[in-house]
Design brief:
Helix content: 25-40%
Number of strands: 18
Radius of gyration: 25 Å
Shape: globular
Distance between the termini: 50 Å
Oligomer: single chain
Structural class: alpha/beta
Number of helices: 25
Amino acid sequence: MTAERPRRAADLLVDCLAAEGCEYVFSVPGEETLDILDALSRHEGVRHITTRHEQGAAFMADVHGRLTGRASVAMGTLGPGATNLVTGIADAYLDRAPMVAITGQAASSKLHKEAHQVVDIVRMFEPVTKWNTRVERIRAIPEIVRKAFRVATLEKPGPTHIELPEDIAATSIQPADGSPPPVPLTPGHAYFPEPTDEAIAHAARLIAGSERPLILAGNGILRRGAAPELRALARGLHVPVAATFMGKGAIDDRSHLSLMAVGLQARDHVLSGFDRADLVICVGYDLVEYAPSSWDPDGSKRVIHIDTQPAEIDAAYRPEVELIGDIDGTLGRLLTAVLPLGVGGRDASERHQSREILVHADLRTQLLDELAAHESNTAWPITPQRAVADLRRAMDASDIVVSDVGAHKIWVARLYQTYEPNTVIISNGFAAMGIAIPGAIAAKLVHPSRKVVALCGDGGFLMNSQELETAKRIGANICVVVWRDDSYGLIDWKQRNEFGKPFGVQFGNPDFVAYAESFGIAGFRPSTAADLYPTLARALDVDGPSVVEVPIDYAENLRLTERLGALAIGD
């Protein structure tokens, strides 16, 4: 610090952020956060990113936390600045992403009465945060910040919130009696326990006694970095894996054991083999991702629950045994326990040779055949399957796609093959539109050497397209791919399926290429279906952000519904 003025509470707050390893504060500047901003300007360890909307700031912190497992900060001023953060905070809450929200507030002398822009943000944030509080004593700041970061990152991770009134932020931290001023607390390390030997043995007996086990892989595997152990378990026992939308990448989709992603259709469990399975091993599975009634409608499946937390109560989700603890260690011990017993009376080698486990192979083949059938489809506008296939072809294994929410999310989740953990980011807990562009900016900050694509529908794109300026300004060279159909395509799909006609979902759009160029960003539009892949390749090679407008034919939505069954309205 090079400050010549007395150190204030705002300086202490920022020092505490640095002590927590906080890399970024994403915010829209405001009057009630002036002292915090000044402290940030004087601090070399924490980088401030100015965003164009507080929702964008919250989404950036959300995705940064999801990719790193560490909390960064989204900050807004009082009143509307704070309320603009809510959607991104709620997304982090249900998507289980660590983040810390900081909001300014009017002076403490105003909080007991009606005052300009003052609403009770602490109470407003209560339902969508794990913990939140107002700073009322300067000496409490180190404990408050330590608790906020600790609670945010402990399982299941999520957002916390600190409100700092402007008069407290501006107050000197030097005690009048000359005693030492408060200083940041040093973070410790929390280690997870593992299940007892008895619990492991119980689960091993269930697996060994099953004939057609299936693994349901959820987002918890990626949060805990347990994908290698999950893959080892699947290979060692020769058990197929279906991933939730947020669990994509837990299994390499090039593996013959991958049944791709589940979570789309009311009958999606049929396609994913749940109807054939006599045991479902749920690993890192969260009910907010995919309701258990969708894959076990009569509650008859035998279930093993493996996660960091006990199972949520649900009539359709009643595990026979729960293995609670760190997921990677649990999976390794479970594999060791099952191998001597075999599965269904056969060891893994025999199961490989008999090919019996590949009773599910037709499900995987259906999806791959659908992709292959559209790889050379010349239809215009472009089919979703062709658009997914060409995007996969343009991206390396470790490159990242951040999907917005809409009809395109369904196609990406279902057909975009994912090879590595955290290379497809989908919001499917809160499922908030507008997340893709700010999320992609955060992903590029975390992984600057990787290609990062924000895949949007035209509805979600315009919800936070102002953050294109942020990407340009800070040098986050993301590629934004916009599937254009001039409507809210997912709602159109559900309306046609439920009522036979759409209502209230059509809208107009600007020229997205010209729109991108108005930001000083390269804009692209393929002229034919065959031109899509080379257009994506050019856009990804640009030295700077880029936008690609892709005219899309969502007639395939209803064709998919006809083939697979009615679309679940509650998805």
